[in-house]
Amino acid sequence: MFKISVSEFEGRYITATRDIEIGESILRCKSYFAVTCEDFKKNSCYNCIKLIKSPPSPQQPPRCFNCNEVWYCSEKCKQENQPKHQHYECTFFKNIKSPKLIQNYKFDFDSYSEIRIILGLLSRYYKDKLLNNKFVSPITINDQNIEQQQQQQQQEEDDQEFINDTLDGVLDLVENDINEETNNVAKEYIDKIIDYIINLLNFTLCNNTTTSTLSTTTTTTLENIEINNNNKNIDDLIKLIRPLIQKVRCNQFGIWTKNDKCIGMAVSPSSSYFNHSCIPNCESVRDGSNMTFKSLFPIKKGEQINISYLALDKSTKRRRDYLKFGYYFHCQCPRCNSSDIDPTGKLEDSLDDWISKFYCRQKKCTGLYYSKLKLSNQSLIIDNNNNNNNSNNNEIHLSCSTCNDPLIVDSTFFLNKPNY
Fold it and tell me: How many other C-beta atoms can be found within 10 angstroms of the C-beta atom of residue 11?
């Protein structure tokens, strides 16, 4: 259906290898690692990354009692996740708010969320790559009853439909160099986060804090840290912090509720194949930390398949400013470049009118309407040369990718797609 290509200007991107119809599932993937956001961690499940529907019992809250940093919606989710959590990031999470560490730092919720996801990735690199101690599930078939075996078999069959990402895929992600020239404010804040994580690594792995002040590069920090044979692993982890932050910042996905609240962050290398466009032909539909990418309208063979990284109902300047600050690139998509191509503004208006049809009608929702079912192009009247209404058009049921708001349209909804 698609192929992955690489260019110096665009990095990795995907193009259609055949015509893709409306509502086709282009890719389904499970995130390699996901965390609940700091401000929602007590109200969201760390396993399924969904809101906890009912408050936990005060006597027996489903959480990790070792680190007290993650909560679960049920004992089932806790049992599924906690062994892996305690194998990797739990020890680091336990010290994330240690008084010895935070006394010299002031971070907001977003920063702690970013720190949590970086620590989760570092802990996996530490265990899998440096110690060669990969996680093995403690549950085996011999330990399970028949019902559990059936559930596991069904889960494995369901998982086959998804791409399972790996740590190597995370390490291979494209990163944007964040420095004084590209974004000095972001660079200074990243320096602060790196300094904090270095101290946390020393405190956790060596039970020792080393106050370090970052200058222009991480190398300066490394020169101020006494490294011996026992600390080589820490040295390797420190070298990885900045690249990981720069990879995550431009490749992470937010996990949103129906009320448009971001309750989690996920890293999924396969989902990062999709480049951004302000007039996307594809939309991500998220279910906790799982994602399915659905085509919004017909995509022709050879066309690049794009998603949007932001809410689309903004002016060109606001969209470009947001992308420059958050993702460190100047958007050159057809919609942003339309005024340069056509100074009259007609092309820009036609592109705005086309994509705005897919905006969710609900206030404050930034989702896009898509078809849950695959719709054959031949079964619809999608012919830009024949714009006549047809009384035989069937109703087409669309759904918002974020809040699930329904929208009923007919085939004329997909007519008059502008050329760009």
Answer: 17
Q: How many CB atoms lie within 10 A of CB 17?
A: 11
Amino acid identity, residue 10? Answer: E
Tens-digit pLDDT profile for the chain (420 aa)? 999 998 877 778 999 999 999 999 999 999 999 999 999 999 999 999 999 987 555 556 689 999 999 999 999 999 999 999 999 999 999 999 999 888 889 899 999 999 999 999 999 999 999 999 999 988 644 445 555 555 555 454 444 467 889 999 999 998 888 888 878 888 999 999 999 999 999 999 987 554 444 444 444 454 444 445 457 899 999 999 999 999 999 899 999 888 878 999 999 999 988 999 999 999 999 999 899 999 999 999 999 999 999 999 999 999 999 998 888 889 999 999 998 888 888 999 999 999 999 999 998 899 999 999 999 877 665 444 454 554 455 789 999 999 999 999 998 899 889 988
Report how far residue 175's alpha carbon sits from residue 248's, in angstroms, rounded to the nearest whole number: 8
Compute the distance between CA of residue 263 and CA of residue 73 in angstroms, rounded to an integer: 14
Q: Which of 248, 274, 253, 276 is nearest to 173 (CA)?
A: 248
Quote the CA–CA distance of 190 and 196 in Å, as a whole number: 10
Q: How far apart are CA 114 and CA 131, in angstroms?
A: 24
Could you tell me if 64 and 70 are in contact, meaning their C-beta atoms sit under 8 angstroms apart?
A: yes
What Cα–Cα distance (Å) separates residue 12 from each residue in 173, 240, 251, 275, 398? 9, 21, 12, 8, 30
| Paired residues of 2 in beta bridges | 16
pTM: 0.84
Q: How long is the chain? A: 420
Neighbours of 259 (CB within 10 A): 12
